[in-house]
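Recall the central idea of this unit: under ordinary conditions, the amino acid sequence of a chain determines the structure it adopts. In this exercise we apply that idea directly, starting from the sequence alone.
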Amino acid sequence: MEHVYSHLVTLLGDKFEVAADQIRPDATLGDLDLDSLAVVELYVTLQEEWEVPLDDSEATAELTVAEVARSVAALLAPEKAGGTP
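Accordingly, the structure predicted from this sequence is:
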């Protein structure tokens, strides 16, 4: 999951211009000033980059950075033999 989390931190900083010192595992997307449209855009971007079927109807500003990373990692785990999130 560390790789997914690191990529998510980079994405939040580069694409959504979130300051690195604001991004913590327990920070919600709302804490990072992402509105509902930005949260859906984040989910769509993650789906395209990781080729995973994230359900963007579950994308809310109340999700934490760690929860988003766990969701992606869980979807990637079946593709990797023996991989655990």
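The CA atoms of residues 13 and 29 lie 12 Å apart.
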